Amino acid sequence: MGLMQLFKQLAGDDWGVHPDDRKRPAADRPVRTMPLPARLYLPLQQHLGSPARPVVLVGQTVLKGELIAEAQGAVSAPIHAPTSGTIVAVSEVTAPHPSGLTLPAIILEADGRDQWCELDGCADPFALAPAEIGRRVAAAGVVGLGGAAFPSAVKLSGAARSQVTTLVINGGECEPYLSCDDRLMRDAAAAIVDGIRIMRHACGARLALVGIEDNKPEAIAAMQAAAAGQADIEVRPVPARYPMGSEKQLIQVLTGKEVPADGRAFDIGILVHNVGTALAVRAAIREGKPLISRLLTVNGNCVADPGNVEVRIGTLAEDVLAFAGGLKGDGLGLARRIVGGPMMGMQIPHWRVPVVKGSSGILALDAAEVASREPDPCIRCGSCVKACPVGLLPLEMSARIRNQAYADAVDIGLKDCIACGCCAYVCPSKIPLVQYFVHAKGELAAQERGKLRNEATRKLALQRQERLDREAREKAEAAARRKAEREAAAAAKAAAAAQTVEAGT
Amino acid sequence: MSEILLLLLSTALVNNVVLIKFLGLCPVMGVSKSVDSAFGMGLATTFVLVLASAASWMLDNWLLQPLGLGYLRILCFILVIASVVQFTEMFIKKSSPGLYQSLGIYLPLITTNCAVLGVALLNVQQQYSLFKSLLYGFGSALGFTLVLLIFAGLRERVALARVPAAFAGAPVAFITISLLALAFMGFSGLNV
Amino acid sequence: MTPLAITTPPVASPHAHGGNSVGRTMFRVQLALLPATLYGFWLYGWPSFFLWLLCILSCVGSEALALKLTGSPRIRATLLDGSAALTGWLLAMTLPPWAPWWVAVLGGCIAIVIGKQVFGGVGQNVFNPAMVARVALLVSFPLPLTLWVLPLPMATLPAPDFVAGLRIFLGSLPVPDAITGATLLGHAKTELARGLDLGQALAAAPATSWLGLRPGSFGESAALLILCGGLYLLLTRVITWQAPLGVLAGVAIPAAIGHALDPGRFLGAEAQLLSGALLLGAFFIATDYVTSPNTATGQLIFGLGIGFLTWVIRSFGGYPEGMAFAVLLMNALTPVIDRFVKPRILGRDRRGKPLDQPEKA
Amino acid sequence: MLAAVLSLTLLGAVLGVVLGIASKFLSVEGNPVVDELIAMMPGSNCGQCGFPGCSGAAAAIVDGSAPPTCCPPGGKALASAIAARLGLSVDLSGLADDGPKIALVAEELCIGCCRCSKVCPTDAIIGAAKQVHNVFREACTGCASCVEKCPTEALSMKPLPVTLQHWVMPRPLAA
Questions:
Q1: What is the average pLDDT across B47-72?
Q2: What is the pTM of this model?
Q3: N or C: which end of chain B has fewer CB within 10 A?
Q4: What is the Cα–Cα distance from A285 to A124, expressed in whole angstroms?
Q5: What kind of fold does domain A120-288 have according to CATH?
Q6: What CATH code is assigned to A375-505?
Q7: What is the CATH architecture assignment of A295-370?
Q8: What's noted on cofactor binding (chain A) (predicted)?
């Protein structure tokens, strides 16, 4: 391996980084199921796309699994009640986002009975038409559980339309600390394989490739055993290297194909889904269960009792942490709160943030793990260039962004950045490169909005001008008409007067 | 063949117009903020330089010298150069308004670019043949464009650097080009 | 529910770091320079030690002064990262070992103030500061910069003691003629100028270069030790192989061809590689992060350029040694190289156009 | 003497004729850059730049008498687009851009005089005479022309609330 590594480095194929994965011991401990919290906070937007629209009223009682917000628009996902209880409010909750801003959310008070609504399972999913599977997956509110939370049904039906040939199942889980996918593959390999078969049926792919990083030997063994009889499901170990779990990188390693920039995996006949999503699809089809809970990793040096926990969607991170033994030393050494992994996760301002469908972990890191320190100036060492899995020049982009030359940064590839964080991870000057890129993307989006606004303004100004012209014209016409009428009247009067004069004579 | 190459190399590198002879510094300082406009300026100057070398040689050898009007040389050369520049300006304005905009005042100022007049006069002084004059003009233009390009690249880098306020802008540009001239001294005494 | 106040400003991911730092990198480079430096002290005695010390002090002092004048809030942190000291160290390595004190002071000032701080400090400069100082000194003061002493173990005179060394360094004691000599390259140049054939002039030159037993700059001492330092940097991944290999190949290939064509006119590849600042330059100067291209291919081109220009200046130019000039010239070309040599972006071709989408069957 | 005068005259005449012909063939109508800029500007002719309208501002920016940042409704987006088009470097920090603002009517102060709706360049203020006016959020460009027309100071500019979709990650503090 060492020699191979050296060769790859010489050949320049050395993208990515090899962070200390810190997955164990949390990954080796059995999964615990968290008891029902008193209240659940369900943001209306837990997925990419347009937010869901509430279909319940305050005070209404709902059963577990009942639809409480429906999808609206082409890319969206519905939300279901994770337990039975009463809707107490439709208000706001802090989003799992560094800004600390709030999101509209439905707040549900559990009644403790945890009573399911009627479920519509299907014993033989392979008898269903692919479109019907897509419909059911959509109705169950399944989204990508790897973190991006893209509605799965949209991907499945899109893939079926563009005739994909390969289904790639992402078991990479390259983020350090996180082990929920690892745990799922170890504990529920058979169910995952079943889910993969259902998805393969739904999208029409011939082959399913399961890529698992080679730092998870137990998961690889379990999956290989479960997929043993299936000729068209192949479990392949891939080298542990961050960001192996990124869609384009995993596709490249597994199939050797490259997704075109500005394109999607469909375009080269590939559909990618996470292992957790496979499991959720299976539950949605076989048992008719909507997505109301997920497995997530609670980890970090500050957590007293780290491990993987099965949590209802909408549970506050605060409650999850309390279940995992709380923070060591009452959170005295806590340096950063994170939802997701340490490489791409979101910093959150406080723990009163709900678990959403895409939350794969809750991390409480101490100062040594965060290792934050004031940045030094860039010394152009080029580490970031070597680490970038996309082939960008992070140092050049950040220098341009520092000088607010956003358009120049776009010219050298800002839009291709996947914000994986490799550059900032290796930077000896500790420059927060990703923050520069996120900032620039935000600024560019704002500029784009400004441009749209300018266009709308121009249109409105034009309309106003037309209106003013029209009004002026109408006024002129009316005046002309009145004048004509007046003149006609005067003429008539004169004529009449003439007649009377004539008559008088 | 080797003589041609040598003349080109020596005019472009060893006796570089900008860094060694210090001719034509005005556009070098003025149009070196971006590589793209520097390239455009380099092309425009190359065009003017080569054309002006040829035209002035013909003028000198076929008109001024036979008529014994050597004292009108500078006047006539400037007339020719100004016309060529005027023509170039019209052409660029028509074909590339963006480049025209970014070159700004420096485009008509090629007229007073002493490199152009200097090369034309040096051609006469050294009694080069028409072909050699062309080569000399082209070599000088090559050196000019090379320095302009390198310098523009450096300035683009420096523009992104955290230059102290006291040195920002022209001062650091002068220091950069002085260091570049220092580097070009390595070519001094170069002979094959 | 009321959102709690945010105490810290929002930060973006990643929330982990690999642990590399500027200070660590600089320390490793200095560690790699150490064996050759210590050996140099043994070869050239006390004056060389004073030169080395004063070069570093001058650089660090200039850096502190410049930071103070520009009102930098992080003077201590910047000085402690070791970049100024490294510049001074490298400058000392390229100077004649018995150069007088004012050369060190002036060199340090030029390197740090004109070469680096004017551009904004560490990471902002476009030319290698040590090479800027070296060239500026050579052009301005050719005499003290070409006064080479014989390594003391080879010299007929005994080594100067501490006091004599200090007096030589301060210029109150002249350098005895008996121990001065010419470098191999300088010798070759003068012999050529006298119309002599190189084959006779330098019969058995390179053999001694491996051990540094010939006149030269302080840091040119033992090729072997410089090479070891370079290999250490390669193994610890502080530097990559592209730039050094480029430099070595850029010199060796034309030298070998020239030597094969006309041995009387051109030095052979081995003599070229082992003499002058070539190895030092290949491993320690051409690999300078700040002033070399970002990409592996760019660094290879950069190295080849330095090597080739060095060979051209050595073989045809007015100066016997061209390393410093070549480095500055290629430093100047670095932005141009960076502009044209970029890594290929995933999913795009080399020109940045998205890859073609395959036709669907 | 005569030769000198003649040859110079001849030279001048020949070159003049050549240039004259060239100018016929290479003439450019108007300034295409100005037209491009006019197309980029908001076009509401709100007059905040101090020029009679957007076309006046565009011409002034091209000839350099006005900075690319002179258009407040265009904001940073427009300024950087113009700067990119003209190849200028622009200092965006000088642009007071603390997020988009829109006009807001204080209902208790509005007397329904209709003065504001007359000046609004985008017809964003609705309301008939003697009725409380209202600002149509989507149409308001934040040009603030209405604010000074209001006799009762019922109109004011309020920043739009930041939402998750509009939030921008702050720039890292410079090292």
A1: 87
A2: 0.87
A3: N
A4: 9
A5: Rossmann fold (3.40.50)
A6: 1.10.1060
A7: Roll (3.10)
A8: Binds 2 [4Fe-4S] clusters per subunit.
